[in-house]
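Retro notes - structure team

What went well: the batch runner handled both jobs without manual restarts.
What didn't: labels got mixed up in the shared folder, which is why I'm recording both outputs here explicitly, each with its sequence directly above its tokens.

Job 1
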Amino acid sequence: MIHIIDDDPNVRDGFMMLLKSAGYVCDAFESAEKFLENYNAESFDLLILDIHLPGMSGCSLLEYLRTKKMRLPVIIITGYDEKSTRTAAKDYGAIAYLRKPVDSTALLDLIKFNYAKA
């Protein structure tokens, strides 16, 4: 299962359509808090995470997951490319850092390279 967290409904819907058309099972959340309410380690393969979220930020979510010893493969997406964001993504163990608008082929190649289809 691939989980998508982004506060923009158009981004969530676009990723959902792209991933489903490529044969992946996925779901989407508008916030880190909604994701945590529904998190189930048994059904988890990958997280696509926007860094800039209302409420708990993407970096705060990564920090929280790390303190709970939840090692999750994460692809960071952001519309605001900042050195501090790139550093935080690396420090928290993200497998990739992609700028919006995300190239769909690059995203699918990254997923295919790292994970098998559900």
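Job 2
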Amino acid sequence: MEAADTFVPIAARAAPRSRLGALAWVQRKLFPNWASGLLTLAVIALLVIVLPPLFDWAVLYAVPTADNAACRAAHGHGACWGVVAEKGRLILFGRYPYEDQWRALLASALLVVLLVASSMRACWRPALVAAWVIVVGACYVLMRGGYFGLEEVGTDLWGGLPLTLLLATVSLVIAFPLAVLVALGRRSQLPAIRTLCTVYVELVRGVPLITVLFMASFILPLFMPTGSTIDVVVRVLVGMTLFVTAYLAETLRGGLQAVPKGQVEAAQSLGLGYWQTQRKIVLPQALRLSVPAIVNTFIGAFKDTSLVTIVSLYDLTGAVQLALGDADWRRFFLEGQLFVAAIYFIACFAMSHYSRWLEAHLFTGTRRE
């Protein structure tokens, strides 16, 4: 037998590494290559340096009770969480009457429950629209009063977390369908509609939100008939809605442009009209493609509610400034700001986490591992 006909077995290959278990997860996520491994080690070293003194300040030497003398004694080496215990209700509810703050708490809870339910696929039914109308109306009745024996509370006394939730939620809910229409208008074949939508978007996006709020609150009343007024919360809602609509419209327009033209041509070949094509073919794909950008706009709008302090509305950030106006607790502003920052972080992290879940849910057939 010649050497060329001699059978030479191939050397055995190493067994594939397990992708399951804690060790595999650490290797895959933290040490996939040498550069990422060095960065991971650097972050661990930084945490080892920073976390112990931070733990001492925030936990070990902190004062959890509303003891002003103890807080002053611990100032510099221990946190004073007593400022949250003492001023927590003022931070959360602003100037809303103390004895009626249960109404503001109930309104906030209803909004949060509605938002959570709206994010669940099982609740995506036509009845959800009616639920939004009922809950928002109930929140207004609870906050404003004047009905069912509830004492009336002017909107100038609304503040804190309920006002932040109300402004962000209502403005986004109204802005979303308007943004869809504006985005479609910007891609319209009719020059008048396309020009009108383009001018609106470019005009609103060309100025900061604080300018829009200023115009809605101080300039708009000048054009009203003598003796007629518009509530300040309504004016702020209009300004925020117009602002968010412009940004959402551009986000959705990008999603519309990403839909292949062949999808529209196929729909037309089947005899579908313009609105049928948009509703059944184009918009579902555009919205799916725009999920990350849409949620990013939602998060930005939620945080932008802090700008309403320019029109003397004390939202969550304005309420903490109001609470820390007390000379006895003014020096502990850092702890108060951290408390508010934690609330914003929880809300924004929840929206971000839901965005990732929604992407995984909607891109089941197209994503690559």
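One thing worth noting from job 2: Strands lie at 314-315.
We'll revisit the folder naming next retro.
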